[in-house]
Design brief:
By secondary structure, the protein is α+β, with helices and mostly antiparallel strands. Helices cover 25% and strands 35% of the residues. The two termini are 23 Å apart.
Length: 151
């Protein structure tokens, strides 16, 4: 699995992408911080990331990505059972302009709804109160986002 935490910075503040999974997809209505998916045969996590971004959000192209950081390796969980499959989550920085385009064009989002960019503090607050509201892949990463974004 390769997934993203999409963000931009404005005047020293971090704004993170926050959306929900559609009702007809696995993990319905769970919060996501970007897009991602499974690796195809022979694909690196980085290649899977770029493919998934182009499939799920056509406005996000490689040239628009300011910075991609491999922030953590995770165990993928399915229905509460650890499968042992490995996953990678990437911090993906975009411009404020690109973030605005994504929100103005939410009809193009193929695997999420109710999309917005919110302060990192809001993500941390939701996670602290109800981690089960997030796609399981993000749960172990969220407590470390602030630290990783400083690097």
């Amino acid at each position: 699995m390769a997934g993203t935490c999409l963000y931009y910075q404005e005047k020293g503040r971090i704004k993170m992408f926050l959306a929900k999974r559609p009702p007809d997809k696995p993990y319905p209505h769970k919060y996501v911080l970007g897009w991602g998916g499974h690796l195809e045969k022979g694909e690196t996590p980085e290649q899977a990331l770029l493919r998934e971004l182009s499939e799920e959000m056509p406005l996000v192209k490689k040239k628009n990505l300011r910075d991609i950081k491999n922030i953590c390796s995770i165990l993928e969980t399915v229905a509460g059972n650890v499968t042992g499959a490995r996953g990678t989550i990437f911090l993906v920085r975009i411009s404020k302009k690109k973030a605005g385009e994504i929100i103005r064009n939410t009809r193009l989002l193929k695997e999420s709804y109710d999309a917005k960019f919110v302060p990192l503090e809001e993500i941390e607050k939701i996670h602290s109160a109800s981690p089960e509201k997030f796609l399981p892949h993000y749960v172990p990463a969220i407590p470390h986002l602030r630290e990783w974004l400083r690097k």
